[in-house]
Amino acid sequence: MLGKITYLFIAVGVGGVFSWLQVPAGWLLGSLLAGIVSAFFIKKVMLSDRLFKYSLAMIGGSIGFMLRPEQFLHYHTLLLPFLLTLILTLIGGLLLGRFLKRYSALNANTAFFCCLPGGASEVIALSKEYGADQRIVAAFHTTRITFFVFTIPLVVGLYVPTATDVIGSRISWGESTLALLTLACVMLLTLIFSKYIHFPGGALFFAIGLGFVAHLLLPTVEMPGFVTGIAQGIMGAIIGMRFDRDTFMELRNIGAVSALTLLLYFVMSMGLALVFWGLTPIGWFTSLLSIVPAGAAEMASTATALGIEPAMVATLQMARVLALFLALPFLIKWFATPVKEV
Q1: Which residues contact residue 301 at a Cβ distance below 8 angstroms, ignoring those fewer than 6 apart?
Q2: CA-CA distance, 268 to 92, in Å (whole number)?
Q3: Whose CB among 195, 206, 240, 336 lies 3.0–4.6 Å from 32's, allowing a Cys bridge?
Q4: 245-254 and 256-279 helices cross at what angle (nearest 10)?
Q5: What is the pLDDT of residues 273-299, one digit of tens each?
Q6: Which among 229, 242, 35 is positioned nearest to 121, based on CA atoms?
Q7: What total number of domains does the chain contain?
Q8: Would the pTM count as exceeding 0.85?
Q9: Enclosing domain of residue 99
């Protein structure tokens, strides 16, 4: 336990230093890098999924506090472009699965589950039931998310000014205390709801919704910036620790085609964001963070760090994950090889 706490303090501290140095999404990238370095060269620290849910509740609650009712007025205009990019995302993932199968020694179902665009934990959990190599599926999704979370903030941050430094805060101690108590209530209710009501992205959805309600009830309460920064640091520490030597070796054993597939995944995501941007009035970077299949929590956290429409990014990312979850049984039936043939 002491080792886990020490690691988290160090990783979050590195994130704070990165933020102080004005690195784009510094809290997230700094802790992510600290996690990768620790997993590769120092020690693998096993962190529970519950800790990730805690950071998710903190980030979601903070996003909810940022929401204003008028922000929802134009969301309906994004529906058709979103559905189009969702269909293209699914088609692209299936084609990349075929590509990975064609040029590697992986069986059909392993390649299929490796390239499904989103809902990583659900996809990994299901993959073993269909004869896929779960270790490779987990390694591929872990690498995809790590690569995107590390790359996208840098790409966006080069052109978007970093959000206000989250280390400093002009909020009084009284206001900060009230905000933290409110956030604690939001987090507690989020954990309770997500325990009994299960669906992909549920914890983030509940946290944002409860944070929004809390802001409506307490409109003068402002969340201290460092709270979101610490939550991003914890999330980065967890993601970074998942990308370890074993993950790297799994991909290395597949060969160069694994790296090429990930690169094509990135190019596909940029193209999908371009399509969405061309069909909607929202900005290019908002489109990129909203459409790229890199995890709702991770992209919402990046959007928060960069001050780029975190509510919209979280909403569209959660909708993509939920849509994939609903489509997954049909995708498996139509495109996965029957287990007995694997």
Answers
A1: 25, 28, 59, 231, 232, 235
A2: 7
A3: 240
A4: 100
A5: 999 999 998 889 899 999 988 877 788
A6: 242
A7: 1
A8: no
A9: 2-341
